[in-house]
Amino acid sequence: MKDVANQRYYLVREDVLTDAMQKTLQAKHLLQTGAVASIWDAVKEVDLSRSAFYKYRDAVFPFHSIVQERILTVSLQIQDRKGTLAKLLETITDAHCNVLTIHQTIPIQGRANVTLSLDVTSMHGDLDDLLQSLKRLDFVEAAEVISSGAL
C-alpha cells in the first residue's frame, strides 16, 4: 500500500508520460466533453485497457485543469479532543484558504472524520504544503485530498 502521507505532485512534459498515461488523458477528455457515454467506450476509442485507465485516472491531469481547480475537498481523521476543530480551521485560515463546507461525523472511540471543502484560490504555498501543515497537527491521524474542481 502506498504511503499517502508522503505523496508529492510534479509537473512533467507530455513526451515523458507513458503511452498508457497519455491514453488515459485522452479517454478522460472524451468523457468530459461527452464524446463518449462510458468509460468502456472511452478506453475502446483510445485503445487502452480499463485497468490501466483506473490505475492512472486519479493520477494524471492536464496542466490547464489543475490551474483552473479552485475547490479542494480534504478528508481528515482526527482525535476527539477539545479545540481540535478550531485549531484545524486556524491552520486552514493561515494557509489563506476559505472554508466552504464542513462535515464532521460523531466521534466514535475517540476519533472523528472531518471533510472540508476549501476555496484555495488565494492559498499560500502549494497543495503539499497545506497537507503537511495539516498532518503536523498532533491530533490529525490522516489527511488526504479526495477531490478537486472548479468554482
From TrEMBL:
Write down a Pfam family by its short name.
ACT
Residue ranges of every copy of the ACT domain listed in the record? 73-148
Q: Which family does it belong to?
A: Belongs to the UPF0735 family.
What name does the UniProt record give this protein?
UPF0735 ACT domain-containing protein A6K76_00465
